[in-house]
Fold this sequence. Notes:
Elements: E1 14-18, H1 27-32, H2 37-45, E2 48-57, E3 64-73, E4 80-85, E5 91-95, E6 99-109, E7 148-156, E8 162-172, E9 175-186, E10 189-201
Antiparallel strand pairs: 1-2, 1-10, 2-3, 3-4, 5-6, 6-7, 7-8, 8-9, 9-10
Amino acid sequence: MAAPDDININDLTGDWQMNKTLSNDVDPVLQMQEISWLLRRAIGFATITLHVTHYTSSDPQPDTVHIDIAQTASMGIKGTTENRTLDWAERENTDHIFGKVRAKSRVVGLAGVDDDEGKDAFLKEGWLGAEAGEDGKEGGEGERGGVKVVEAWVRNLDKGWVARQVWGFAEVDGKRYHVRRVVVTKGEERLEVRLVYDFIKRKVGEVKEEEIG
């Protein structure tokens, strides 16, 4: 299901399911990240759902933006939790799939995304509102540097790969979807993937007291 017009990068709260038909194959990336063949095969058949809560808090300082993601999967795969603080400060995390990583995230105008001097231009391509430049309206009216996106950087501390992501909204097959563009590198190896997510439902029940509206 396409994303409703009133949901944008300022509030991703809700449930999102990876659309494997519209997304690129993630198996080569998982192989680079040294995920076992058995787990990769299960992921290939599984339904992946993100349960997202997007809110502000006073931790570590007033008006800090957070995105907490509980990821669930079918095929008996144990879920993971991904709690991002959008202040571009590095933090360590460990989970049973990707191991020990150091990561940072932020909201930034598209022009401010680090594309490694153009080598990773893929990260900046295809976003709704990008053609409008500094006045882009897709989730970022008047935002310096154009349409707003989430930029994330992750480095695995044991296996040496680095993943750089940009999240936003893009038109796919004539419909508006939540999309993540990802570049993963390890030594001289480099892979690009586009992940497309169907909107399932808005979050129901208890939310963070300062959840963004």
